[in-house]
Amino acid sequence: MNQQYTIFWLAGESSGDLHAELVMKALDQRRFRHIGIGGPRMQAMGLQALFPFQRFAVMGFVEVLKHLGFFMKVQARIRKLFKEERPNLVILVDYPGLNLRIAHLADEFRIPVLYYICPQFWAWKHERVYKLKASVRHTACILPFEKEMLDIHNVTCSYVGHPIAEEVKFEMERESFANFFGIDHQKRWIGFFPGSRDGEIKKMLPIFIQAANHWPDHEILISKSRNVDHSLFMNLVQDARQSNLHIVDGYNYEMMKYSDALVCTSGTVTLEAAYIGTPSVICYKANPISYLIGRYLINIDRIGLPNIVLNKDILPELVQGQMNPDMINQKLQELLPSGARREIVLLELNKLRGMLSDRKPSSEVPKIIEHLLATYG
Asked: Residue 46: helix, strand or coil by DSSP?
């Protein structure tokens, strides 16, 4: 087949950028032109980006309202592209606030839509199921229970496996990692993941640093995402540069694997750490108004993806006012070696790893792409 197809992609977060890259690598690049919105990984695979990726790192109701003008501009630009260029396929990756509107827009122009990484309709906004059914030709689910729930509503979908199973790779052994970042490999390590958005860093990092001060005999590792503003991050940590504090830029998986326990801002990182097998305290703090609106809309009691997948309260969750240094350290103590809950947690995390490892998105999603192009392209 010599025809070249144009695929429009939209991934608005760093996790989506990583998940989409995995699929793009599996496609024959000679047959595809990629255009749309995505981060550095997708751009390295040939994506022609329409907007700066950093502009999309917005979370929470109030925060989105502040950037409404930008998102209206994005939607208008995409409408123009759909009308003038008519891509053969639209692939939307997570990011449901914008992506479900773009799905409707694509359907207006009769462009088939593949939604990769199903919106979390089971957590909140159940009506998103009906939007998927109306505007999306195929939904690729990465959590096993999602397909069962979508089948009830006759939404065309497949369970493709979780990308974590393919993405988690280790480049360095513990001692090499320790030498690279100047960490004492003979001590115990505690890792902190404050988030991948500037807004998260402002809320979470100062509290995480306060909690870290409680552990002078441990090596403290703080992850710095490549998406975070460098000067913002460094200004927040500069007053806390005690000798046992180390900033780790990149190498998230090594940091997760070699730390004895973690403190993580709620998000994909919590599932990655759980898959690797390191216990973590899951933390979340939002703008108070956004949080109140969210509590009204959310249908589930858990925020941590590992707990949601296992359908159990395995990892401790600290939300809003509970997310303070004392509570973080109390829960950390239970998860560290010789902690009261560590062995129970490790057993459950091993079960989770098995649940997420049975299929590979890099194999399953390209099959769906080929089917949609053959059917509608």
From this structure: coil
